[in-house]
Design a protein that fits this description.
The protein is an all-beta fold and 115 residues long. The protein has no helices and eleven strands. β9 and β10 form a beta hairpin. The chain is globular, with a radius of gyration of 13 Å.
């Protein structure tokens, strides 16, 4: 399993970023996928999830601002982040959870939002 994030960046508050995660090594289309984030000195937290059929869930802190989506043909997961706030600053991780008894994580991509 490989999960490779891209789209890191530095933006001003109110700006937008789009993260992508290229997946390989498993049947992407039949698995739920997640985006997590970890801010300095804080625990990793779930940001958004999407099932194989496109049902989504979001953390309260990002609802109406972030959109998770997937392209099963391209085996790619996306996170569109709008109206970014300084508190969104974190390393963002793409994750495949509980697949064959294991969790898999990407290497993470840094998102920094300046005030």
């Amino acid at each position: 399993v490989q999960l490779v994030e891209s789209g890191r960046g530095l933006v001003q508050a109110g700006g937008s970023l789009r993260l992508s995660c290229a997946a390989s090594g498993f049947n992407f289309g039949i698995n739920s996928m997640d985006w997590y984030r970890q801010a300095p000195e804080k625990q990793r937290e779930l940001v958004a999830s999407i099932t194989s059929v496109g049902s989504t869930n979001y953390a309260d802190s990002v609802k109406a601002r972030f959109t998770i989506s997937r392209d099963n043909a391209k085996k790619t997961l996306h996170l569109q982040m709008n109206s970014l706030k300084p508190e969104d600053t974190a390393v963002y991780y793409c994750a495949l959870r509980r697949w064959r008894g294991r969790d898999y994580w990407g290497q993470g991509t840094q998102v920094t939002v300046s005030s």
